[in-house]
């Protein structure tokens, strides 16, 4: 691995909504902006809350007329906070002048959330915090890699 290779960089284009996702439909862009304000409830219990777009939970945003449909791929199919996330998403999306109703669905295709869905920035920040904590504790988390 060269010194300039980022081991945490996404190697293939994301198929889900990321901070870099751009839409031709202005309504979808506004919805994405609202979703960026929704924090993941579990991350709020840590010192580093993360929004659901940076976490990679938004599988898709669809708009049909004045109706929006958001599909989430949760970190766990058993997420106990789904109803809370659902309520906040609907409240924020339905606050938009262009949207009358919002439905939130959980992806049930069998896909599994992995941390490569996180934004590059959040993944790097998470990794940095991990290394700082390990160093402060005097722990080497794994054997040194050799090129």
Please describe the structure with a list of short key phrases separated by commas or semicolons.
147 residues, 3-stranded mixed beta sheet
Task: Describe the fold and architecture.
- β1 and β2 (about 65-70) form a beta hairpin.
- With about 150 residues, this protein is an alpha+beta fold.
- It has helices at about 25-35, 80-95, 120-135; strands at about 60-65, 65-70, 100-105.
- Strands 1-2-3 form a three-stranded mixed beta sheet, with helices on one face.
- The chain contains three helices and three strands; from the N terminus they run αββαβα.
- The termini are close together.
Structural class: alpha+beta
- Principal-axes geometry comes out as elongated
Question: Total number of helical segments?
Answer: 3
Low-confidence stretches: none
């Amino acid at each position: 691995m060269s010194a300039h290779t980022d081991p945490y960089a996404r190697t293939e284009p994301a198929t889900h909504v990321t901070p870099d996702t751009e839409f031709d439909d202005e309504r979808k862009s506004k919805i994405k902006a609202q979703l960026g304000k929704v924090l993941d409830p579990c991350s709020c219990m840590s010192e580093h809350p993360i929004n659901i777009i940076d976490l990679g939970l938004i599988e898709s945003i669809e708009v049909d007329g004045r109706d929006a449909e958001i599909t989430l791929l949760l970190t766990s199919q058993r997420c106990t906070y789904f109803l809370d996330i659902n309520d906040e998403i609907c409240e924020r999306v339905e606050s938009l002048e262009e949207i009358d109703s919002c439905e939130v669905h959980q992806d049930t295709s069998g896909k599994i959330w992995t941390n490569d869905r996180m934004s590059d920035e959040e993944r790097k920040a998470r990794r940095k915090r991990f290394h700082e904590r390990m160093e402060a504790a005097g722990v080497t988390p794994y054997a040194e890699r050799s090129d």
